[in-house]
Design a protein that fits this description.
The chain contains three helices and eleven strands. The chain is α+β, with helices and mostly antiparallel strands. An eleven-stranded antiparallel β-sheet has the order 1-2-3-4-5-6-7-8-9-10-11, with helices on one face. A hairpin with a 2-residue loop joins strand 7 and strand 8.
């Protein structure tokens, strides 16, 4: 009889261990119910222009950088007394803000940014780079996802000298908030998206991202539990990027937030 009891107990233990393993939270079987496509939607929101994502940040810091070369023929004269709303002396920090709202490609959005900008100059007293400390908040509502977020971004934009062919941006972008998916499992909950961008090249005239890479993590909680995904972003130029979440690849339009799954 004892041997029979042991025989019955062992399969039960194996079944319990098997169930525990199958509930783990990974990209293929997320316990939270959040799919890789839904995580991709959050990532796309965090990089696209019309959802106040990272590409919106680069556009805004690029616009400010343009003003330092806007006075012909030698660019802005540092410490000049000329009237110029963008004037900033070397080594100083100034604050400004911008708010915007609208709709683009079936996405409605509104956002508010606060900037703290420190201007560094080269040995010739000519603007060289701007260090931007940014806080923001906003919301967007699109065909696949709606989200309400706040966050921070710390980026340095270099290449202000007229001799530099492009602007170069390096830094971080972080946003946290509440999301509601309209597709797949229609998950909802809290989200945290973190981006680390490396050597992002901006075209000096259009401020469009020409190239560069970033790592991205998408995490948070949904009613069924926590989720976490990791990925990469490769900026391809022409307002396009290749987003990889886990092993799934998406081609993203940075202006509209739309994408095709490969």
């Amino acid at each position: 009889m004892k041997s029979l009891k042991i025989t019955l107990i062992i399969p039960l233990l194996l079944f319990a261990v098997s169930c525990k393993k199958s509930g783990t939270n990974d990209n293929n079987n997320p316990k939270s119910g959040v799919t890789s496509d839904e995580a991709a939607d959050m990532a796309v929101g965090a990089i696209s222009v019309n959802s106040f994502g990272f590409a919106s940040v680069t556009d805004n810091v690029g616009a400010k950088a343009q003003t330092f070369n806007s006075i012909s023929p030698v660019g802005q004269t540092v410490n000049s007394t000329a009237t110029n709303s963008a004037h900033q002396a070397c080594g100083t920090t100034v604050a400004d803000s911008i708010d915007f709202s609208g709709s683009n490609a079936s996405v409605t959005y509104s956002a508010f940014y606060k900037y703290s900008r420190t201007l560094n100059c080269n040995t010739n007293n000519v603007p060289d780079n701007l260090i931007n400390a940014i806080t923001f908040k906003g919301s967007f509502d699109g065909p696949r996802l709606s989200s309400n977020d706040s966050g921070t971004s710390n980026v340095t934009i270099a290449g202000l000298a007229a001799s530099a062919a492009n602007y170069t941006v390096n830094g971080t972008y972080s946003r946290k908030g509440a999301f509601t998916s309209k597709v797949g499992n229609k998950a909802s909950g809290s989200s945290d998206v973190e981006i680390v961008a490396t050597n992002i090249l901006l075209d000096k005239s259009s401020r469009a991202i020409a190239s560069g890479t970033a790592t991205i993590t998408i995490s948070g909680t949904a009613p069924a539990g926590a989720f976490s995904f990791a990925g990469t972003v490769v900026f391809n130029g022409n307002n396009k990027a290749t987003l990889t979440v886990g092993t799934t690849v998406y081609i993203v339009n940075l202006l509209t937030g739309s994408y095709t799954k490969q």
